[in-house]
UniProtKB/TrEMBL annotation:
<feature type="domain" description="NodB homology">
    <location>
        <begin position="6"/>
        <end position="119"/>
    </location>
</feature>
<dbReference type="InterPro" id="IPR002509">
    <property type="entry name" value="NODB_dom"/>
</dbReference>
<dbReference type="Pfam" id="PF01522">
    <property type="entry name" value="Polysacc_deac_1"/>
</dbReference>
<dbReference type="GO" id="GO:0005975">
    <property type="term" value="P:carbohydrate metabolic process"/>
</dbReference>
<dbReference type="GO" id="GO:0016810">
    <property type="term" value="F:hydrolase activity, acting on carbon-nitrogen (but not peptide) bonds"/>
</dbReference>
<dbReference type="InterPro" id="IPR045235">
    <property type="entry name" value="PuuE_HpPgdA-like"/>
</dbReference>
<protein>
    <submittedName>
        <fullName>DUF3473 domain-containing protein</fullName>
    </submittedName>
</protein>
<dbReference type="InterPro" id="IPR011330">
    <property type="entry name" value="Glyco_hydro/deAcase_b/a-brl"/>
</dbReference>
<feature type="domain" description="DUF3473">
    <location>
        <begin position="135"/>
        <end position="255"/>
    </location>
</feature>
<dbReference type="InterPro" id="IPR022560">
    <property type="entry name" value="DUF3473"/>
</dbReference>
<dbReference type="Pfam" id="PF11959">
    <property type="entry name" value="DUF3473"/>
</dbReference>
């Protein structure tokens, strides 16, 4: 019997999104907001006894090594490049530097990568640096961002790397990303997840720890910041309970890759 796998993933980064809307966020607030949300998420995951993957920037890890080490004792730490903010000029070697930082802090190999803002990056380079998988593809159409409808919604291999696409619904390719979770009624969002899980046999969902802190006072659009805090934690709790009823197995991205390798499944574009 083929199992249904759910990957809960969190982009653990500096809280800088308000700066995209013109509000300067102090360094202290960037760290505190993210830490508050992260601690709430860890408590929720512990309550359900499930593991998740935290795509972490090297910068945030360097500034919060004890938190990252503690997370790594149960969950997977993967790379989210060195900085998340677009105000830092990106260098290709930032990715390798972030990998080294995370491995030094956790004492474990870092095998996964997600590019900030889901931008593309050369799979050959990532594979050469020792990454096993990438999860930077959202195979949908988002006006003003990207049109990736030509990409497979299922896991596939490309230039020696496993690509784990972010989940979209069958047929319409509606993205099940963080904004959909935040803005749709939980009943509808959970139903879309169940339908996708039945069809694809896996769910790759992604969120940000800062969403689960109180961010209502920051100058951002309502659809970005609300709901937040404990209300959003409760919403994720309901989603997890709902998916557990589908006999879903919650795994880290690395664990999911291992199931694919063991099963010898074909990962062709579909």
């Amino acid at each position: 019997m083929i199992k249904n796998f759910v990957m809960l993933t969190f982009d653990l980064e500096e809280f800088d999104i308000a700066e995209e809307y013109g509000q300067k966020v102090s360094h202290s607030d960037q760290m505190t907001v993210t830490k508050t949300g992260t601690e709430r998420l860890i408590a929720l995951l512990d309550n359900h006894n499930i593991r998740a993957t935290f795509f972490t920037t090297g910068n945030y890890a360097q500034l919060n090594p004890e938190l990252i080490k503690a997370i790594s004792l149960k969950h997977e730490i993967a790379s989210h490049a060195l900085y998340h903010s677009s105000f830092h000029k990106f260098k290709e070697t930032d990715i390798l530097e972030s990998k080294n930082i995370l491995e030094n802090i956790t004492g474990s190999k870092v095998t996964g990568f997600r590019m900030p803002r889901l931008k593309s990056f050369d799979h050959k380079v990532l594979s050469g640096w020792g990454f096993v998988y990438d999860s930077s593809i959202n195979p949908t159409y988002l006006p003003g961002r990207y049109n990736l409808l030509h990409k497979s919604p299922l896991p596939y291999r490309e230039n020696g790397l496993l690509e784990l696409p972010c989940s979209t619904t069958p047929t319409l390719r509606f993205p099940l990303f963080w904004l959909a979770f935040k803005n749709l009624p939980i009943g509808l969002y959970a139903a879309l997840c169940r339908r996708t899980l039945r069809k694809r046999k896996n769910l790759m969902l992604y969120f940000h720890p800062w969403e689960f802190a109180e961010i209502g006072d920051f100058k951002m659009p309502g659809y970005v910041k609300s709901p937040d805090g404990i209300e959003l934690v409760d919403k994720l709790d309901k989603l997890i309970q709902n998916l557990k009823k589908q006999d879903a197995e919650f795994v880290t991205c690395q664990e999911f890759c291992e199931t694919l390798e063991i099963a010898g499944e074909s990962m062709k574009s579909v």
